[in-house]
């Protein structure tokens, strides 16, 4: 790499307050980025107008033609950043703040010192100080995960080689999928405690309680089918079963909103999908 242009990409769906607080939290550091891109993913016209009015002069705001969800929206922002001259993108949720000083320069220095580095994660805490990710190795479905899902810096040349985020996932498991592909291609993936920020857990998804439930259960099955067919049958069965709590976790919330039908759809769809998976695979 030459100039090491570092751009920032985040996504907003009907969350002006969160996005505004996120951008404000950077302070003068926002100017350190080569470009700042907010993908306005299908927000209502009033939310989009507020974003443009407040940030249109200093931030690139991309309005999607319809609601695209997480992976596809971020791919749009990342590809735009690359086309505009970025070599590294810091891709992060909009429900984050308290970014450490010299954030961009720290990212740049890590990528300069390691030519094989493709994905760099920060140290992340919840808003109350609870540590969410400290860079230590943790196993997820047998894969070593040492970067946070809430945000990380990507080398665009490496990311492009593996095909960006898999849009079929929609949301969740996109990070583990990318990490597996990058490591298989010979790249390095790790975190730095010199980079820090805070994340409001479920800040962006709290208004869509059934959406996270569905995609966590769905993508658990996707991952087992994609990467774990060499594992013992019992291991695969256990992982599929472990997704069931996601299907029922929101049940009480649905009932409180008098949406019994919606509550029933998730576990029923999950059980049906699991049955189909057994028939197809076993």
Brief overview, please?
The protein contains 11 helices and 11 strands.
What does this structure look like?
With 282 residues, the protein is an alpha/beta fold. The protein has two domains: 6-199, Alpha-Beta Complex (Spore Coat Polysaccharide Biosynthesis Protein SpsA, Chain A); 210-281, no CATH class. Helix content is 44%, strand content 21%. The chain contains eleven helices and eleven strands. It has helices spanning 16-25, 45-55, 70-83, 103-113, 156-161, 174-184, 210-227, 233-242, 244-249, 251-256, 260-281; strands spanning 6-12, 35-40, 60-63, 88-92, 96-97, 117-126, 131-133, 138-140, 143-145, 151-155, 188-199. A hairpin with a 2-residue loop joins β8 (138-140) and β9 (143-145). α7 runs parallel beside α11.
């Amino acid at each position: 790499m030459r100039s090491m242009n570092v751009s920032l990409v985040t996504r907003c769906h009907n969350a002006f307050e969160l996005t505004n607080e996120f951008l404000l939290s950077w302070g003068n550091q926002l100017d350190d980025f080569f470009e700042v891109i907010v993908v306005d993913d299908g927000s209502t016209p009033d939310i989009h107008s507020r974003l443009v009015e407040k940030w249109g002069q200093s931030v690139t705001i991309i309005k999607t033609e319809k609601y695209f969800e997480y992976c596809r929206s971020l791919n749009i922002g990342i590809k735009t950043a690359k086309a505009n001259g970025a070599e590294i993108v810091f891709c992060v949720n909009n429900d984050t703040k308290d970014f450490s000083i010299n954030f961009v320069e720290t990212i740049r220095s890590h990528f300069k010192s390691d030519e094989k580095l493709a994905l760099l994660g920060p140290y992340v805490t919840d808003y109350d100080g609870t540590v969410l990710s400290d860079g230590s190795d943790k196993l997820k479905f047998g894969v070593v995960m040492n970067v946070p899902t809430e945000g990380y810096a990507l080398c665009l040349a490496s990311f492009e080689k593996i095909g960006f985020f898999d849009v079929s996932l929609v949301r969740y498991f996109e990070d583990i999928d990318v990490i597996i592909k990058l490591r298989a291609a010979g790249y390095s993936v790790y975190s730095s405690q010199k980079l820090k920020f805070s994340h409001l857990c479920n800040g962006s998804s709290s208004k869509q309680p059934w959406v996270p439930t569905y995609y966590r259960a769905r993508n658990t099955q996707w991952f087992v089918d994609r990467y774990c067919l060499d594992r013992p049958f019992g291991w695969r069965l256990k992982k599929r079963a472990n997704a069931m709590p996601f299907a029922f976790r929101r049940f009480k919330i649905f009932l409180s909103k008098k949406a019994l039908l919606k509550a029933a759809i998730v576990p029923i769809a999950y059980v049906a999908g699991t049955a189909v998976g057994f028939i197809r695979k076993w």
